[in-house]
Amino acid sequence: MALSSHFLLSFVLIVASLSKIQAVEFTVSNTVPNTEGGAIFADRIGDAYARQTMIAATNFIWHVFQQATAADRKDVACVRLIIDNLYDVAAATGSEIHFSANYVREIQGDKEEFTGIMYHEMTHVWQWDGRGNPSARKAGAGNSWGESSAVTAYFLDYCESRRNGFVAELNKKMRDGYNDDFFVQLLGRTVDQLFSEYKAWFGGAAE
How far apart are CA 139 and CA 112, in angstroms? Predict the structure, then answer.
């Protein structure tokens, strides 16, 4: 789904999500309010909008991952957004998201850019990670499916096109660990076979 679609969808989901995620606390902390980026965040984005985005993103991710009940989801009591300058753009560490005030300054508090990045980082908060196993340029690029986040994303999107709901099912299986055989179970082919087919489908995009 395009970034602009995510941006518009976030507002649609805010009201619906409020009643579904009351058990999760969402907090926003601007630790650098006296910097240019911190001031722009406060003036053009703000704590209320950031929190609404976290709520809407959570509801959207649970829907995509088909996690209708608390038993299906990661046990996260609180998700914290921290505006600081620890990273160039943003990064999720556990249930904390660190968003760079310097980057907020660079984008001049653009809400659409902020929203897109937050959806990405919120996905890291809620997705099962296979407890440390596996391993995300343009579609068809890469030499292995796990070599970068961009390659992985395009490859999983291809797998989703082969079976609707594939990503949600894979995420469920990764709750207690990861195994390459998950691809065989879901799509009837090894991950290497699927990656070769993915490369062929996109004409083996140049690196």
Answer: 23
10-residue averages of pLDDT along the chain (207 residues)? 47 45 86 97 97 92 82 90 91 91 95 87 81 55 75 80 81 83 94 91 61
Residues 6+ apart with CB under 8 A from 33: 39, 42
- Closest by CA to 144, choosing from 152, 132, 156, is 152
Cα angle, residue 114 at apex, residues 109 and 117 outer, rounded to 5°: 150
Q: List the beta bridge partners of residue 28.
A: 81
88, 116, 115, 119: which is closest to 101 by C-alpha? 88
**DSSP codes, 156-177:** HHHHHHHSTTHHHHHHHHGGG-
**Helix or strand run (H / E) with residue 60:** helix 46-64
Sign of CA dihedral 65, 177, 76, 72: positive
Backbone φ and ψ of 79, nearest 5°: -115, 125
Q: What is the DSSP letter of 43?
A: I
Angle at 91 between CA 89 and CA 92, to 5 degrees: 155
Hey, what's the torsion of the CAs at 152, 122, 41, 43, to 10 degrees?
130
Query: pTM of whole model > 0.85?
Result: no
